[in-house]
Design a protein that fits this description.
The protein is of the alpha+beta class. 23% of the residues lie in helices and 20% in strands.
Length: 198
């Protein structure tokens, strides 16, 4: 439960990050954040602890009794707007491609995924958003140092630079908690909405 996820909002109530329940409690206890409930009321640590939890609510047992797990927190002093720029990285390529092999469409365990240059570096291919895709080990071996056409493979989708951070794409496509929905609808409103800068 302590490692489950909490949506973090900036002071303007824009989603900027996803963190663990453990980290969220730490931020609330240190008076850096407030819990936001379903009615958009905010609570500091003491008032959240005193709040009685509905029967169906997720709780954590403490020495002074059960405390309800927050699902959305708002940072008190952080008003920066998330940046558009998405840093090129292995994790962001995996996130952009939704941890799916772009050749066979499979979703193997992350340890069986790697990056593949669509046009191999040996043939002049660059390491860029537009030339690197998530690939399973089997497809990567099959492709080798060839182009997809030479290896008789087809890309599921042409690689491109994301318009906004892949992490926010994952949040939008895999909403786990109803409490997140009102804040994620801001992100879903337009295809070029800003996302989270890592």
């Amino acid at each position: 439960m302590l490692n489950s996820t909490v949506l973090v909002l900036n002071r303007s109530y824009l989603p900027i990050h996803v963190t663990s329940v453990r980290r969220a409690f730490s931020l609330i206890y240190q008076d850096q954040a407030r819990v936001l409930n379903e009615e958009y009321a905010t609570f500091d640590f003491a008032s959240w602890r005193r709040l009685s939890a509905p029967r169906e609510a997720e709780c954590i047992g403490t020495s002074s009794g059960a405390i309800r797990v927050p699902r959305v927190i708002v940072l008190i002093g952080f008003d920066r707007i998330p940046k558009r720029h998405v840093r090129y990285s292995r994790v962001n390529i995996f996130a952009r491609d939704k941890f799916t092999c772009q050749y066979c469409g499979g979703k193997p365990h992350r340890s069986l995924l790697n990056l593949d240059h669509v046009i191999p570096r040996a043939l002049g291919g660059k390491t860029s958003w537009e030339n690197v895709v998530c690939s399973c080990v089997d497809c990567n071996r099959r492709k080798g140092g060839r182009t997809p056409e030479q290896a008789r493979l087809r890309l599921c989708r042409a690689p491109s630079r994301p318009n906004w951070a892949p992490l926010m794409n994952l949040i939008v496509s895999n909403v786990r908690y109803n409490e997140w929905r009102p804040f994620l609808s801001i992100v879903e409103a337009g295809p070029r909405s800003p996302g989270i800068a890592e």
